[in-house]
Amino acid sequence: MELQSIQHHAAMLMYLAFTVSCYYFSKWLHSRFPVFIFIPLVFVPVVIVVLVLSLHIPYQDYMWDSHWLVWMLGPATLAFAVPVYEYRTLIVKHWLSLTTGVFIAVSAGVGSTLLLSRWFHLSEMLQRSLAMRSITTPFAMVATESIGGKPDLTAVFVVITGVIGIVVGELVLGGLTITSHHGKGAGLGACAHGAGTATAYKIDNQAGVIASLMMMLSGVVTVLLAPWLGHILWA
């Protein structure tokens, strides 16, 4: 029994070290070769999937031994509130634009997802799990659970949405000739949540603050509305 405990802890440390090492290696690669495949949100999951499949590691074991990394998404998301507080005067100044943006972001994200999933005749479980993909992971998992979806599936869809959002979002914003940093931040925060917010901070601090606020407010609103939406849409 003691040997099994030692093996379990050794495996847990190995999974942790491998995941963290992959992340920093991916960041280094992306700084040297700024191409899509080396973005940490793309590179790390692909490498982990290859490892799990090649070594025949049960998915449940890997997730259980590294679940606290997922838990850290909550504190990481809340950390975005620090710069939001520092720029609170900016929020007061643009409260109407932000309120309108959050309403549009939530309506477009949930509405378009449901329309497309029903158009392609996806199963009800997939529809429920996809519906909350447009908000950051901690909020999305809570909202999905409240409407009877699979939080693990939603987490995957959220990551995919974020990756596509930062790749396509900047191209779209550039194509629309949007020059306002506030506008770029709002768009990235609304469509690509955490990944978009990190990208917005690279543009400008105020763009990052607006993106943080859009991401968090959209998440809060969606979580509050999720039970009602679930009752209406899948009654």
Could you characterize what this model shows?
It contains 13 helices and no strands. It is an all-alpha fold and about 240 residues long. Helices cover about 85% and strands about 0% of the residues. The protein starts with a helix and ends with a helix. It is globular. The mean pLDDT is about 80. The longest helix is centred in the first third of the chain and has 31 residues, at about 1-30. It folds into two domains: about 1-70; about 80-235, no CATH class. Helix 11 (about 150-175) crosses helix 12 and helix 12 crosses helix 13 (about 205-235). The protein has helices at about 1-30, 40-55, 60-65, 65-70, 75-80, 80-85, 90-95, 95-120, 125-130, 135-145, 150-175, 180-205, 205-235.
| Overall pLDDT level | 81
Multimeric status of the protein:
single chain
Q: Whole-number radius of gyration?
A: 19 Å
**Helix and strand run:** HHHHHHHHHHHHH
Instruction: Tell me the major beta sheet.
Output: none
**How big a fraction of the residues is strand?**
under 5%
Strand segment tally: 0
> Structural class per helix/strand content?
mainly alpha
**Poorly predicted regions:** none
Overall number of structural domains:
2
For the termini, the CA-CA separation is: 49 Å
As a percent range, the share of helical residues equals: over 70%
* Total count of helical runs of at least 4 residues: 13
Globally, the shape reads globular
